[in-house]
Amino acid sequence: MSAASAERPHGDRQLIAEANRLVDRNPGYRFEIIGGQILAAPPRDAPHARALTKLMRPFIAAGVDGDEAEVLQGIGLWLPTGTEDYAIPDLAIVDTDIEEHYVENNCYEPASFRLVLEVTSSNWKADLQTKVTAYANAMVPIYVVVDRKHQRLHVLTDPGANEYSTHQVYAPGQSVTLPDSIGAKVTLDVTEILEAGRPKQTS
């Protein structure tokens, strides 16, 4: 997410109330609370959405979206880092009983998330820094970042306090097989995903 932040007001759930007011006033924008600050990102562009579509296909083809797990976009993840903290990853692999783990504000317990994925936009620093810490502290097993700015795909595993102990970076021409803990063997074509996230050249 990119840069806008706000001071935390006093009182119960006032920061969430402010974030929800901002959602109402800014259609298409996404607002999250991480580390007690509201983070905002503008509406996704077509290449961003295209990359997400390409990413969903190998998960579904491998059978991840079935009886035990689901592939979902834009679902809220309640974070343990603050009393009102939550994130909204672009894509997530979650347990099918996720609705039994509802917390509040359309967010769910992190234990229901097997993988979270972000496709960067102007918010690339947050995806590669702020959210690494947030998702690691939430103990999300796998965090994938499609870094459109630097044309790389990051796979982070083995979460702990503030960081993932394993961080692998893949370039175009490579492929990556994700850990079996997501529920199936899924291999991502780095070139295909990064190309989908590039704006198409027009004459």
Describe the structure.
The protein is an alpha+beta fold. The chain has helices at residues 14-25, 46-61, 124-137, 190-196, and strands at residues 30-34, 37-41, 69-73, 76-78, 86-87, 91-95, 102-104, 107-108, 113-119, 142-147, 152-159, 164-170, 175-177, 187-189. Helix 2 packs antiparallel against helix 4 (190-196). The longest helix is centred in the first third of the chain and has 16 residues, at 46-61.
Characteristics of this structure?
six-stranded mixed β-sheet, 32% strand, four-stranded mixed β-sheet, 203 residues, 14 strands, alpha+beta, 4 helices
Number of strands: 14
What is the string of helix and strand elements?
HEEHEEEEEEEHEEEEEH
What best-fitting shape do the alpha-carbon axes yield? globular
* Proportion of beta-strand residues: 25-35%
- Count of runs of 4 or more consecutive helical residues: 4
List the helices and strands and how they pair.
Blueprint: H1 14-25, E1 30-34, E2 37-41, H2 46-61, E3 69-73, E4 76-78, E5 86-87, E6 91-95, E7 102-104, E8 107-108, E9 113-119, H3 124-137, E10 142-147, E11 152-159, E12 164-170, E13 175-177, E14 187-189, H4 190-196
Helix pairs in contact: 2-4
Please summarize what this structure is.
With about 200 residues, the protein is an alpha+beta fold.
